[in-house]
Fold:
Amino acid sequence: MTEGRGNGTLRQLDEKGKKIGLPSRLLDFYQGLLNLQSKAEQQIGKVNPDIKKQVINERLAHGRPLITYNEIAFNWDIVNNLFTQVIELFSHYSDLFGEIPNSLNKRNTIPRNLVKAWYKKSPPPSSLATDDADELLLVDAIIHATIKPTLVRYASALSGFVQQEKWKQNICPVCGGLADIAFLEEKEGARWLVCSRCDTEWLYKRFECPYCKNNDQSKLGYFTDDDSIYRLYVCEECRKYIKAIDMRATEDKILFPIERILTINIDNQAREEGYEPGTS
Ligand SMILES: [Zn+2]
Ligand SMILES: [Zn+2]
Structure:
């Protein structure tokens, strides 16, 4: 069982979530999703990407992620099985997320061209395109939820090669994804980003926007909560935000898969102030 996704994690999500007053329906949904992803991760098992050491070093030296889309050996049986389960789960919570878009509904297989476009952060293929922003977000969430277990497995295999002091890019060194949460480490308070797609952690500058790379300090700021555990970093240049956890202020073991959910109120506050998540 991968750390951060087991039964203990689901219990912790339930207990902590209820304590801070998150709606039980929302918690049920996320428990269901983490459970499906955890099972898929076990089915996928350990992966052995066939990338030569020299290629790894070249990519890192040029600030390029360790793996490209074509090098990922998707197990499509597992991916498609998870896809149908994810669709079913989302469709049970249409009051929270909206109806499943027609482009994905009643399909047994995930559109591979959509997976590729999502991975490369390109617009969806024209046959699956839509002008509806909510629909786009939901399609993105479904693809993300379905592909994540595969990417997490690749991250486990590859993240050890990253030389943190040398990377410091605003994209994930393994998959090239963007971060959706950050943390300040216990000792010196250095800021680390966590990949929204594969959960790889990487060291990043503390005073630079991880989305537009703005480093004009007059346009960067952060807010903290009463306990100083959570921070909301905002950038006035691109109007994006990232949530962060200050590890110096807590002794709790932090599990990012559930922290993303436990901090949903911070996302709501940020949106109310007119900021957008950096991954949107
Ligand atoms: Zn990643
Ligand atoms: Zn910015």
